[in-house]
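User: I'm curious whether this sequence folds into something compact or stays loose and floppy. Could you predict its structure so I can see for myself?
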Amino acid sequence: MGNNAHFFATVSRMKYINRWALMRNARTENLSEHSLEVAMITHVLCTIGNVRYDRDLDADRAAMIALYHDASEIITGDMPTPVKYYGKEIREAYQKVEEIAVNTLLEQLPEDLRDTYAPILHGDAVLTPYVKAADKLSAYIKCIEEQVSGNSEFFSAMRTTEEVLKKMAETLPEVNDFMDEFLPSYGKTLDELLGK
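Assistant: Here's the prediction. I'll summarize afterward.
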């Protein structure tokens, strides 16, 4: 198999990629834990869509796409949002770099497995908006957690992220449902969450 069997060892390195590099963090967050949280939130957003909004979404597949949604950052590193979206030219250039990184990862799989993982790493038009919404919700949760820890560094990021989430909720009401029902619990202690 040679070089075509390094995929999972490479992907496991997500735990070494720290997020929010331009900001002071009360607690560091790595790409592995972020991806898990995004996968869980993506799954519930799709489930809410199916149960409450009569959608026909594959929540399990969406969660898989979410697990790998930032895998390219193993190669590219975590590009801070203000830099990544600074302007059209930078955004387009970074998208090309991400595409190259995803293809590099896929080449680390045995050839007979690539067709299974390619659509997961590339995402799809129907499920990717849910992954993007979950990604923003995860960022918002990070802001909540940092503020609860007494870190005011994330105040501006929280306000900006909230505006983006409101815009997303115009087409994905599932986002509002998550924010209304689940967000109030974040930042509470375990005793508060368990009702003790």
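Summary: The mean pLDDT is 91. Residues 136 and 165 are 7 Å apart (CA to CA).
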